[in-house]
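Reviewer 2 asked us to include a model.

Predict the structure of this chain.
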Amino acid sequence: MKSLAELAAIRDKMKDKVVIREGEGAIRVVVGMATCGIAAGARPVLNAFVDQVAKSGLSEKVTVSQTGCIGVCQYEPVVEIFEDGKEKVTYVKLDADKAAEIVEKHLKGGKIVEEYTIGAYSK
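Predicted model (structure tokens):
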């Protein structure tokens, strides 16, 4: 870093991502980031949710955050989506591509992607 202007530019570039992780949206996306989740690939999933929510213009409505162990290690990476007045949806065995699809279909379109839910894997 060579100047305060360069530091300010980096801050401005990352500001949207920080707001998404700390926001107060009506929909909360919670990514399990315990050791088991990270080892299974949860970090790229978290980053994909943050990026896709921002690109889709959902930052006012959706908060993306992380938590520790969700308790179903065999299904990592695990993401839980909480919406006001609706039952929690638990997505399992995710990757960045599936996360992008969930943003498009579920968060933007309102349709749960059933084949990625814990119910589909536990049958």
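The mean pLDDT is 88. The chain has five helices and four strands. We have added this to the supplementary material.
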